[in-house]
Amino acid sequence: MLSFSFSTVLxxxxxxxxxxxxxxxxxxxxxxxxxxxxxxLGVLVGLxxxxxxxxxxxxxxxxxxxxPMLSKIVTLFRKPQIQILNTTVSFWNLFVIIWIIGxxxxxxxxxxxxCRVKDYILKYGQDRxxxxxxxxxxxxxxxxxxxxxDFRVMELPNMNIPMIYGLKHPYIILPNNLSISEDNLYYVxxxxxxxxxxxxxxxxxxxxxxxxxxxxxxxxxxxxxxTNTLLEMHVDEIITHNENxxxxxxxxxxxxxxxxxxxxxxxxxxxxxxxxxxxxVQSQDKDFKRRLIMLLQDFAMPKKIFTSIxxxxxxxxxxxxxxxxxxxxxxxxxxxxxxxxxxxxxDNTYFIQDDAFHYEVYIxxxxxxxxxxxxxxxxxIKIYNEKGxxxxxx
Length: 394
Known about the structure:
Blueprint lengths: L5 H22 L2 H24 L8 E4 L2 H11 L3 E3 L2 E3 L1 H34 L1 E2 L4 H13 L7 E5 L6 E3 L5 E5 L6 H16 L2 H14 L5 H22 L3 H20 L7 H6 L1 E2 L8 H9 L4 H24 E4 L4 H4 L12 E5 L5 E5 L2 E6 L10 E4 L4 E4 L1
Protein backbone atom coordinates (compact mmCIF):
# COMPACT_ATOMS: atom_id res chain seq x y z
CA MET A 1 0.00 0.00 0.00
CA LEU A 2 1.30 3.47 -0.89
CA SER A 3 2.05 5.85 1.98
CA PHE A 4 2.30 9.65 1.78
CA SER A 5 4.01 11.48 4.62
CA PHE A 6 6.56 14.11 5.53
CA SER A 7 9.35 11.57 5.02
CA THR A 8 8.20 10.65 1.49
CA VAL A 9 7.98 14.32 0.44
CA LEU A 10 11.40 14.97 1.98
CA UNK A 11 12.89 12.04 0.05
CA UNK A 12 11.31 13.20 -3.23
CA UNK A 13 12.65 16.72 -2.66
CA UNK A 14 16.18 15.54 -1.87
CA UNK A 15 16.28 13.12 -4.81
CA UNK A 16 14.89 15.57 -7.36
CA UNK A 17 17.27 18.29 -6.17
CA UNK A 18 20.25 15.95 -6.61
CA UNK A 19 19.07 14.93 -10.10
CA UNK A 20 18.45 18.53 -11.15
CA UNK A 21 21.86 19.49 -9.79
CA UNK A 22 23.60 16.75 -11.80
CA UNK A 23 21.74 17.72 -14.98
CA UNK A 24 22.74 21.35 -14.39
CA UNK A 25 26.39 20.28 -14.07
CA UNK A 26 26.15 18.44 -17.40
CA UNK A 27 24.60 21.52 -19.02
CA UNK A 28 27.45 23.72 -17.85
CA UNK A 29 30.14 21.42 -19.22
CA UNK A 30 30.06 21.77 -23.00
CA UNK A 31 32.04 18.59 -23.72
CA UNK A 32 29.91 16.43 -21.42
CA UNK A 33 26.73 17.97 -22.82
CA UNK A 34 27.73 17.22 -26.40
CA UNK A 35 28.71 13.64 -25.51
CA UNK A 36 25.57 12.94 -23.50
CA UNK A 37 23.17 14.35 -26.09
CA UNK A 38 19.78 15.93 -25.55
CA UNK A 39 17.89 12.61 -25.71
CA UNK A 40 19.58 11.13 -22.65
CA LEU A 41 19.19 14.40 -20.77
CA GLY A 42 15.52 14.44 -21.74
CA VAL A 43 15.10 11.00 -20.16
CA LEU A 44 16.84 12.22 -17.01
CA VAL A 45 14.56 15.25 -16.81
CA GLY A 46 11.61 12.86 -17.18
CA LEU A 47 12.88 10.74 -14.27
CA UNK A 48 13.17 13.86 -12.14
CA UNK A 49 9.59 14.88 -12.90
CA UNK A 50 8.27 11.36 -12.23
CA UNK A 51 10.05 11.32 -8.86
CA UNK A 52 8.22 14.49 -7.90
CA UNK A 53 4.90 13.17 -9.19
CA UNK A 54 5.12 10.09 -6.95
CA UNK A 55 6.36 11.14 -3.48
CA UNK A 56 5.15 7.88 -1.94
CA UNK A 57 6.52 5.01 0.10
CA UNK A 58 6.02 1.48 -1.28
CA UNK A 59 5.66 -1.77 0.69
CA UNK A 60 9.17 -2.83 -0.34
CA UNK A 61 10.75 0.40 0.92
CA UNK A 62 13.32 0.12 3.71
CA UNK A 63 13.46 2.88 6.31
CA UNK A 64 16.89 4.37 7.00
CA UNK A 65 17.07 6.18 10.37
CA UNK A 66 18.25 9.77 10.46
CA UNK A 67 20.84 10.96 12.93
CA PRO A 68 19.53 11.78 16.43
CA MET A 69 19.82 15.55 15.88
CA LEU A 70 17.90 15.46 12.58
CA SER A 71 15.40 13.06 14.11
CA LYS A 72 14.66 15.57 16.86
CA ILE A 73 14.02 18.29 14.27
CA VAL A 74 11.70 16.05 12.25
CA THR A 75 9.87 14.99 15.40
CA LEU A 76 9.23 18.60 16.38
CA PHE A 77 7.97 19.25 12.85
CA ARG A 78 5.62 16.26 12.98
CA LYS A 79 4.43 16.53 16.59
CA PRO A 80 0.88 17.94 16.99
CA GLN A 81 1.45 21.01 19.16
CA ILE A 82 -0.45 23.91 17.59
CA GLN A 83 -3.99 24.40 18.86
CA ILE A 84 -6.46 25.51 16.16
CA LEU A 85 -10.09 25.58 17.30
CA ASN A 86 -10.69 22.08 18.71
CA THR A 87 -7.85 20.42 16.80
CA THR A 88 -4.16 20.10 17.57
CA VAL A 89 -2.02 20.21 14.45
CA SER A 90 1.68 19.99 13.63
CA PHE A 91 3.90 22.20 11.52
CA TRP A 92 3.69 19.50 8.84
CA ASN A 93 -0.11 19.81 8.80
CA LEU A 94 0.20 23.59 8.40
CA PHE A 95 2.70 23.12 5.59
CA VAL A 96 0.30 20.82 3.71
CA ILE A 97 -2.51 23.37 4.10
CA ILE A 98 -0.26 26.20 2.83
CA TRP A 99 0.91 23.90 0.01
CA ILE A 100 -2.68 23.33 -1.16
CA ILE A 101 -3.61 27.03 -0.88
CA GLY A 102 -0.47 28.03 -2.79
CA UNK A 103 -1.21 25.50 -5.53
CA UNK A 104 -4.74 26.86 -5.99
CA UNK A 105 -3.44 30.45 -6.04
CA UNK A 106 -0.74 29.75 -8.64
CA UNK A 107 -3.17 27.72 -10.78
CA UNK A 108 -5.71 30.56 -10.90
CA UNK A 109 -2.91 33.03 -11.60
CA UNK A 110 -1.56 30.92 -14.47
CA UNK A 111 -4.99 30.46 -16.10
CA UNK A 112 -5.67 34.19 -15.80
CA UNK A 113 -2.35 35.12 -17.42
CA UNK A 114 -2.84 32.54 -20.18
CA CYS A 115 -6.22 34.03 -21.11
CA ARG A 116 -4.92 37.61 -20.92
CA VAL A 117 -1.98 36.85 -23.23
CA LYS A 118 -4.26 35.16 -25.74
CA ASP A 119 -6.55 38.21 -25.69
CA TYR A 120 -3.50 40.46 -26.14
CA ILE A 121 -2.40 38.52 -29.22
CA LEU A 122 -5.85 38.78 -30.81
CA LYS A 123 -6.26 42.45 -29.88
CA TYR A 124 -2.90 43.85 -30.94
CA GLY A 125 -1.65 41.27 -33.45
CA GLN A 126 -2.10 41.61 -37.20
CA ASP A 127 -3.34 38.39 -38.79
CA ARG A 128 -0.99 37.49 -41.67
CA UNK A 129 -2.16 33.89 -42.07
CA UNK A 130 -3.27 34.43 -45.70
CA UNK A 131 -0.17 36.42 -46.62
CA UNK A 132 1.28 34.53 -49.59
CA UNK A 133 4.89 34.55 -48.31
CA UNK A 134 3.84 32.87 -45.06
CA UNK A 135 1.11 30.60 -46.42
CA UNK A 136 3.26 29.16 -49.22
CA UNK A 137 6.10 28.22 -46.88
CA UNK A 138 3.82 26.79 -44.18
CA UNK A 139 1.86 24.75 -46.75
CA UNK A 140 5.16 23.32 -47.99
CA UNK A 141 6.35 22.46 -44.47
CA UNK A 142 3.04 20.82 -43.54
CA UNK A 143 2.99 18.84 -46.79
CA UNK A 144 6.52 17.56 -46.13
CA UNK A 145 5.39 16.20 -42.73
CA UNK A 146 1.89 15.07 -43.76
CA UNK A 147 0.27 17.55 -41.41
CA UNK A 148 -2.64 19.93 -41.77
CA UNK A 149 -1.85 23.64 -41.85
CA ASP A 150 -3.72 24.86 -38.75
CA PHE A 151 -1.32 27.70 -37.99
CA ARG A 152 -2.32 31.31 -37.60
CA VAL A 153 0.48 33.76 -38.32
CA MET A 154 0.35 36.95 -36.27
CA GLU A 155 2.65 39.96 -36.45
CA LEU A 156 2.86 41.56 -33.05
CA PRO A 157 4.45 44.84 -31.89
CA ASN A 158 6.99 44.93 -29.05
CA MET A 159 8.44 41.59 -30.11
CA ASN A 160 12.07 40.79 -30.84
CA ILE A 161 11.89 37.01 -31.41
CA PRO A 162 9.63 34.62 -33.37
CA MET A 163 7.71 32.13 -31.25
CA ILE A 164 4.75 29.76 -31.25
CA TYR A 165 2.00 29.89 -28.65
CA GLY A 166 -1.06 27.78 -27.99
CA LEU A 167 -1.94 24.09 -27.76
CA LYS A 168 -4.82 23.21 -30.06
CA HIS A 169 -4.87 26.28 -32.31
CA PRO A 170 -1.25 27.47 -32.46
CA TYR A 171 -0.23 31.05 -33.19
CA ILE A 172 3.10 31.62 -34.91
CA ILE A 173 3.99 35.07 -33.64
CA LEU A 174 6.48 37.20 -35.55
CA PRO A 175 7.87 40.66 -34.79
CA ASN A 176 6.14 43.26 -36.95
CA ASN A 177 9.54 44.71 -37.84
CA LEU A 178 11.06 41.39 -38.94
CA SER A 179 13.11 41.64 -42.11
CA ILE A 180 14.87 38.42 -43.16
CA SER A 181 15.69 36.45 -46.28
CA GLU A 182 13.30 33.85 -47.69
CA ASP A 183 15.66 31.02 -46.68
CA ASN A 184 15.82 32.24 -43.09
CA LEU A 185 12.04 32.72 -43.03
CA TYR A 186 11.67 29.08 -44.07
CA TYR A 187 13.83 27.91 -41.15
CA VAL A 188 12.04 30.22 -38.72
CA UNK A 189 8.60 28.91 -39.69
CA UNK A 190 9.85 25.33 -39.86
CA UNK A 191 11.34 25.61 -36.38
CA UNK A 192 8.07 26.85 -34.87
CA UNK A 193 6.03 24.28 -36.81
CA UNK A 194 8.24 21.44 -35.49
CA UNK A 195 7.50 22.55 -31.94
CA UNK A 196 3.80 22.09 -32.66
CA UNK A 197 4.15 18.80 -34.54
CA UNK A 198 6.14 17.28 -31.65
CA UNK A 199 3.82 18.63 -28.92
CA UNK A 200 6.52 20.70 -27.26
CA UNK A 201 4.04 23.26 -25.97
CA UNK A 202 2.17 20.40 -24.27
CA UNK A 203 5.39 19.13 -22.70
CA UNK A 204 6.18 22.59 -21.38
CA UNK A 205 2.64 22.89 -20.03
CA UNK A 206 3.00 19.59 -18.16
CA UNK A 207 6.29 20.71 -16.62
CA UNK A 208 4.67 24.02 -15.73
CA UNK A 209 1.74 22.17 -14.14
CA UNK A 210 4.02 20.33 -11.75
CA UNK A 211 6.00 23.50 -11.06
CA UNK A 212 2.67 24.99 -9.96
CA UNK A 213 2.00 22.00 -7.69
CA UNK A 214 5.55 22.19 -6.29
CA UNK A 215 5.58 26.00 -6.24
CA UNK A 216 7.77 25.97 -3.12
CA UNK A 217 10.51 23.88 -4.75
CA UNK A 218 13.23 26.07 -6.38
CA UNK A 219 14.55 23.06 -8.33
CA UNK A 220 11.67 23.47 -10.78
CA UNK A 221 13.00 26.85 -11.91
CA UNK A 222 16.16 25.11 -13.13
CA UNK A 223 14.24 22.10 -14.45
CA UNK A 224 11.86 24.23 -16.53
CA UNK A 225 14.76 26.15 -18.10
CA UNK A 226 16.63 22.91 -18.87
CA THR A 227 13.51 21.49 -20.52
CA ASN A 228 13.29 24.58 -22.76
CA THR A 229 16.86 24.10 -23.96
CA LEU A 230 16.38 20.36 -24.59
CA LEU A 231 13.25 21.02 -26.67
CA GLU A 232 15.16 23.56 -28.75
CA MET A 233 18.02 21.09 -29.29
CA HIS A 234 15.50 18.44 -30.33
CA VAL A 235 13.96 20.70 -32.98
CA ASP A 236 17.43 21.75 -34.18
CA GLU A 237 18.31 18.11 -34.92
CA ILE A 238 14.95 17.39 -36.58
CA ILE A 239 15.40 20.26 -39.02
CA THR A 240 19.03 19.59 -39.92
CA HIS A 241 18.95 15.75 -40.01
CA ASN A 242 22.69 16.00 -39.25
CA GLU A 243 23.29 16.98 -42.90
CA ASN A 244 26.23 19.37 -43.24
CA UNK A 245 24.73 21.71 -45.85
CA UNK A 246 21.44 22.15 -44.01
CA UNK A 247 23.23 22.42 -40.67
CA UNK A 248 25.43 25.26 -41.89
CA UNK A 249 22.47 27.23 -43.30
CA UNK A 250 20.34 26.61 -40.23
CA UNK A 251 23.16 27.60 -37.86
CA UNK A 252 23.62 30.82 -39.83
CA UNK A 253 19.89 31.47 -39.53
CA UNK A 254 20.12 31.07 -35.75
CA UNK A 255 23.02 33.51 -35.61
CA UNK A 256 21.15 36.05 -37.78
CA UNK A 257 18.05 35.81 -35.62
CA UNK A 258 20.14 36.09 -32.47
CA UNK A 259 21.68 39.28 -33.83
CA UNK A 260 18.23 40.61 -34.71
CA UNK A 261 16.92 39.88 -31.20
CA UNK A 262 19.87 41.73 -29.67
CA UNK A 263 19.26 44.75 -31.92
CA UNK A 264 15.65 44.94 -30.70
CA UNK A 265 16.18 43.72 -27.13
CA UNK A 266 14.84 47.02 -25.72
CA UNK A 267 11.32 46.09 -26.81
CA UNK A 268 9.20 45.12 -23.83
CA UNK A 269 7.30 41.94 -24.65
CA UNK A 270 5.06 40.04 -22.25
CA UNK A 271 7.18 38.17 -19.71
CA UNK A 272 4.55 35.41 -19.47
CA UNK A 273 4.50 35.01 -23.28
CA UNK A 274 8.28 34.77 -23.37
CA UNK A 275 8.39 32.12 -20.64
CA UNK A 276 5.47 29.95 -21.76
CA UNK A 277 5.96 29.91 -25.55
CA UNK A 278 8.44 28.00 -27.73
CA UNK A 279 10.86 30.30 -29.54
CA UNK A 280 13.72 30.15 -32.02
CA VAL A 281 16.18 32.28 -30.04
CA GLN A 282 16.00 35.09 -27.54
CA SER A 283 18.31 37.97 -26.70
CA GLN A 284 19.08 36.74 -23.15
CA ASP A 285 19.78 33.08 -23.93
CA LYS A 286 22.86 31.69 -22.18
CA ASP A 287 22.31 28.25 -23.70
CA PHE A 288 22.45 29.52 -27.30
CA LYS A 289 26.15 28.60 -27.56
CA ARG A 290 25.38 25.09 -26.34
CA ARG A 291 22.78 24.67 -29.07
CA LEU A 292 25.41 25.58 -31.66
CA ILE A 293 27.88 23.17 -30.08
CA MET A 294 25.32 20.36 -30.32
CA LEU A 295 24.74 21.24 -33.97
CA LEU A 296 28.31 21.71 -35.15
CA GLN A 297 30.58 19.56 -32.97
CA ASP A 298 31.04 15.83 -33.43
CA PHE A 299 32.66 13.75 -30.69
CA ALA A 300 34.07 10.25 -31.08
CA MET A 301 31.49 7.50 -30.56
CA PRO A 302 33.44 5.67 -27.77
CA LYS A 303 33.49 8.88 -25.73
CA LYS A 304 29.75 9.37 -26.24
CA ILE A 305 28.99 5.79 -25.23
CA PHE A 306 31.18 6.01 -22.12
CA THR A 307 29.58 9.30 -21.01
CA SER A 308 26.06 7.95 -21.62
CA ILE A 309 26.72 4.78 -19.60
CA UNK A 310 28.18 6.71 -16.65
CA UNK A 311 25.29 9.18 -16.55
CA UNK A 312 22.65 6.47 -16.98
CA UNK A 313 24.03 4.28 -14.18
CA UNK A 314 24.47 7.26 -11.87
CA UNK A 315 21.02 8.75 -12.44
CA UNK A 316 19.19 5.41 -12.41
CA UNK A 317 20.99 4.41 -9.21
CA UNK A 318 19.93 7.62 -7.45
CA UNK A 319 16.36 7.35 -8.76
CA UNK A 320 15.67 3.73 -7.78
CA UNK A 321 17.56 3.97 -4.49
CA UNK A 322 15.20 6.78 -3.46
CA UNK A 323 12.28 4.33 -3.66
CA UNK A 324 14.03 1.36 -2.06
CA UNK A 325 15.30 3.43 0.86
CA UNK A 326 13.64 6.33 2.66
CA UNK A 327 15.01 8.56 5.39
CA UNK A 328 12.96 8.31 8.57
CA UNK A 329 13.27 10.03 11.93
CA UNK A 330 14.28 7.49 14.53
CA UNK A 331 15.72 7.14 18.02
CA UNK A 332 17.31 4.21 19.75
CA UNK A 333 15.42 3.30 22.85
CA UNK A 334 18.56 3.16 24.99
CA UNK A 335 19.51 6.71 23.99
CA UNK A 336 16.32 8.46 24.97
CA UNK A 337 14.16 6.13 27.03
CA UNK A 338 15.19 4.09 30.02
CA UNK A 339 12.55 1.37 29.92
CA UNK A 340 13.14 0.53 33.56
CA UNK A 341 12.09 4.05 34.55
CA UNK A 342 9.76 5.34 31.82
CA UNK A 343 6.57 3.33 31.41
CA UNK A 344 4.22 4.22 28.49
CA UNK A 345 0.87 5.49 29.72
CA UNK A 346 -1.96 7.81 28.68
CA ASP A 347 -0.18 10.86 30.13
CA ASN A 348 3.23 10.55 28.46
CA THR A 349 2.45 8.60 25.28
CA TYR A 350 0.50 9.04 22.05
CA PHE A 351 0.35 7.32 18.65
CA ILE A 352 0.25 8.69 15.09
CA GLN A 353 -1.39 6.34 12.59
CA ASP A 354 -0.43 6.60 8.89
CA ASP A 355 -2.37 5.49 5.80
CA ALA A 356 -0.70 2.07 5.89
CA PHE A 357 -2.00 1.45 9.44
CA HIS A 358 1.43 1.74 11.01
CA TYR A 359 1.72 3.50 14.35
CA GLU A 360 4.48 5.93 15.32
CA VAL A 361 4.94 5.82 19.10
CA TYR A 362 5.90 9.05 20.91
CA ILE A 363 6.88 9.05 24.58
CA UNK A 364 7.47 12.33 26.37
CA UNK A 365 7.20 14.10 23.02
CA UNK A 366 10.01 12.06 21.42
CA UNK A 367 9.76 9.43 18.70
CA UNK A 368 10.17 5.93 20.17
CA UNK A 369 9.40 3.37 17.47
CA UNK A 370 7.05 2.42 14.62
CA UNK A 371 4.85 -0.63 15.16
CA UNK A 372 2.21 -2.53 13.20
CA UNK A 373 0.19 -3.43 16.29
CA UNK A 374 -0.57 -1.72 19.59
CA UNK A 375 -0.49 -5.01 21.46
CA UNK A 376 1.45 -4.63 24.68
CA UNK A 377 0.64 -0.94 25.16
CA UNK A 378 -1.87 0.03 27.88
CA UNK A 379 -5.38 1.20 27.05
CA UNK A 380 -6.40 4.86 27.07
CA ILE A 381 -3.50 6.16 24.95
CA LYS A 382 -4.66 8.65 22.30
CA ILE A 383 -4.28 7.87 18.59
CA TYR A 384 -3.99 10.70 16.04
CA ASN A 385 -3.97 10.60 12.25
CA GLU A 386 -1.28 12.38 10.22
CA LYS A 387 -3.44 15.54 10.14
CA GLY A 388 -3.28 15.75 13.93
CA UNK A 389 -6.92 14.78 14.38
CA UNK A 390 -7.83 12.52 17.28
CA UNK A 391 -9.10 9.19 15.93
CA UNK A 392 -9.73 7.21 19.10
CA UNK A 393 -8.01 5.86 22.17
CA UNK A 394 -6.21 2.55 22.38
